[in-house]
Structures are given as structure tokens and as C-alpha cells.
Design brief:
The protein is α+β, with helices and mostly antiparallel strands. The chain has 2 domains: 2-143, Jelly Rolls (Sandwich); 145-217, Arc Repressor Mutant, subunit A (Orthogonal Bundle). 42% of the residues lie in helices and 22% in strands. It is built from 7 helices and 11 strands. The protein has helices spanning 15-24, 107-116, 118-144, 147-162, 171-178, 182-194, 210-217; strands spanning 26-30, 35-37, 46-51, 54-59, 65-71, 76-77, 93-96, 100-105, 166-167, 198-201, 204-207. The strands form 3 sheets. It has a 4-stranded antiparallel sheet. A 4-stranded antiparallel sheet has the order 2-7-4-5. A hairpin with a 5-residue loop joins strand 4 and strand 5. Helix 4 crosses helix 7 (210-217) and helix 5 (171-178) packs across helix 6 (182-194). The longest helix is centred in the middle third of the chain and has 27 residues, at 118-144. The protein is elongated and about 65 Å long. The mean pLDDT is 89.
Length: 219
């Protein structure tokens, strides 16, 4: 079965456990911009990404977004299955940044497997530990790193992900990723443009000097 290659602990499961997963696992195809999970929705379960790109983010009380993680091909995410960990609550939204295909294992089944299998329980805790480490790194960036450095790093990351120096992304979308206001992003991008790092056009940012961005971001 195709999905088995995307679940690292598959071979550690019993045949009966494997059969239970195979009977209920669901395959999804979603378009870019689709919201596949939010904190008010039913727990989606464990997500195995076949192709595409997902973004996990949280909302402030005033509705401001900040990205806490991105998921790509072969990634496995528990952020959409926080209900399997009753002591931990994730008020997380997940949307497709690109057309995406993924499988989901229902949360109720995965929780049962955690209760009866040490391998599954350890795997889930390792996933959560990794998510927590990523979140702590993000908090350190927000608290201790100036916005110009963070923005330079974000643009370099986007260039690597897209494989192009021309980024089709709006200032509003960048603000959503970084947890700030669009006006703050616009002012800093105009500064980058004045310094010869980027060229701005409507809906597009062209990277003119990767070296200057790297120097600024300390990468």
C-alpha cells in the first residue's frame, strides 16, 4: 500500500494494527488556499503528506496570524491531532500553501494505537518534542532577532523553497507568516529595495542580492 512508505513506524506495527489503519486511512487532495484544520473543527488525525506544502499557524486575540511550521513531502504531523494528547492543547490552523495530497489516520485510532504500542507512543512523543523545539526556536527569533534579520531570512527561505529569485507573494501574506502588520513588512521591503537587495512589483518580490540578504540575516 502506497501510504506505508510515508509512515516510519509501519514495520513496528503488528499485522492486525496495520490492517486497522488500512481500513480507515483517508486520502485527500486539496487546492492551494484550502483550510484543512482549525481549532474549532473535529480532530483531523495524524497527517502524512504525499506531495505539496502545508502551513500551520496560530491566531492572536486580534486575529493576527503567525506561522509556526511548514510541512512538505514525506512529513508527518500531529498538529492536527492534538486531541490524542489530552494534556496538551494546540489551537492550530492548517492551510494548503500549494496543491497538496495527504493521508489522514483518524485520531481515535491513533490514540488507541498509542495506548497499546510503545513504538507508536514513543513516535508520537518524538513528533511533539520536535514540534515544541521548532516553536521554541520561533519564539527565540521573535524575541531576540530584529525584524530586518527575520525578514531577510524569510525571503531566503522562500527563494530556496520556490527555486526562484522571483517570489510571487504579497506583503500581506508575509505579514501573516511573521506575525506582524502588513505596513511593517512594506516599510522594511522598501528599505531592502533602496539598499539594492530586492525589486518590488505588484504581488512580486525579486531577489537582487542574495549575498546582502545572507549578510543581514546572519546565515
Amino acid at each position: 500500500m502506497e501510504f506505508t512508505g510515508y509512515l516510519p513506524i509501519w514495520e513496528k506495527l503488528t499485522r492486525e494494527q496495520q490492517d486497522r489503519i488500512a481500513q480507515v486511512i483517508e486520502f485527500h487532495t486539496v487546492k492551494k488556499g484550502t483550510h484543512i484544520h482549525d481549532s474549532s473543527a473535529q480532530c483531523l488525525g495524524l497527517v502524512l503528506i504525499k506531495s505539496g506544502q502545508l502551513r500551520a499557524y496560530i491566531l492572536s486575540e486580534d486575529g493576527r496570524e503567525i506561522t509556526i511550521g511548514r510541512m512538505f513531502e514525506y512529513d508527518v504531523s500531529l498538529l492536527s491531532a492534538s486531541c490524542v494528547m489530552p494534556d496538551l492543547q494546540f489551537n492550530v490552523m492548517i492551510e494548503a500553501e500549494k496543491d497538496t495530497q495527504f493521508w489522514s489516520i483518524p485520531a481515535c485510532l491513533f490514540k488507541n494505537l498509542m495506548d497499546e504500542s510503545l513504538a507508536v507512543s514513543n513516535y508520537a512523543r518524538n513528533l511533539l518534542s520536535s514540534n515544541f523545539s521548532d516553536l521554541m526556536w520561533l519564539m527565540e527569533q521573535i524575541m531576540w532577532k530584529s525584524f530586518d534579520k527575520r525578514l531577510a531570512g524569510f525571503l531566503l527561505e522562500e527563494m530556496q523553497l520556490e527555486g526562484s529569485s522571483i517570489l510571487k507573494i504579497t506583503h500581506e501574506k508575509i505579514a501573516a507568516h511573521m506575525g506582524t502588520a502588513r505596513e511593517v513588512v512594506t516599510r522594511m521591503l522598501r528599505y531592502f529595495q533602496n539598499e539594492g537587495m530586492v525589486r518590488l512589483t505588484r504581488g512580486t518580490i525579486e531577489i537582487l542580492s542574495q549575498e546582502k540578504l545572507e549578510d543581514l540575516s546572519d546565515t
